[in-house]
Design a protein that fits this description.
Structural class: alpha+beta
Radius of gyration: 22 Å
Strand order of the largest sheet: 1-13-2-6-7-8-9
Largest sheet: 7 strands, antiparallel
Strand content: 25-35%
Helix content: 10-25%
Number of helices: 3
């Protein structure tokens, strides 16, 4: 019994250390609302992606020389892949109807759209599903298929940017009766 208790405590300590060492937190809809309420510019907030995002498309052979990203052959087809590693810094270019248009690299139309998930709390990557349930996105005016797991990417901000929640907050000390 003692052995199991010690293992349980050890696992708890390890989980606590891993979760408390993170210097980033999920960006929530509540934070975005606070930004709007206090006229803080969302474009000045540094964002990060929580998961690796990978998307690809099949290229016609004649356009291979002008494609961005990594080009490789897969089953005899020329593939253009774009990878956005976990914790890549990004910025919000604009907000439209509650959707955040995020860029992780320079260039026109090189943005991904993030929306609040089913719970309405965190911002996650917006992916369109086709009839075969493959995730599709438009990036740089081209249609891409997203790699499974990438649709789980959420937006993060550094913990020190949680001023978004504490903006205009102060603690009142109270008032005593004058003698």
């Amino acid at each position: 019994m003692k052995k199991y208790f010690i293992n349980f405590v050890s696992i708890g300590v390890i989980v606590f250390l891993f979760t408390s060492c993170s210097n980033k937190i999920y960006f929530t809809n509540e934070m975005r609302i606070k930004l709007d309420e206090y006229d803080l510019e969302i474009g000045k907030v540094q964002f990060y992606n929580s998961n690796k995002i990978v998307f690809k498309r099949v290229l016609p052979y004649d356009s291979a020389a002008i494609a961005n990203g990594a080009i490789k052959f897969e089953n005899g087809k020329l593939i253009n892949s774009i990878i956005i590693k976990k914790n890549t810094p990004g910025t919000c270019e604009f907000v439209e109807d509650g959707l955040l248009n995020m860029t992780f690299e320079d260039g026109d139309n090189k943005y991904l759209i993030f929306k609040t998930g089913f719970n309405g709390k965190y911002y996650e990557l917006l992916v369109n599903r086709d009839l075969k349930n493959f995730g599709q996105i438009v990036y740089d005016n081209e249609n891409y298929t997203i790699q499974r797991g990438s649709e789980k990417a959420k937006l993060l901000v550094k913990k020190d940017q949680d001023y978004i929640l504490r903006a205009q907050q102060r603690v009142v000390k109270g008032k005593k009766v004058a003698k």
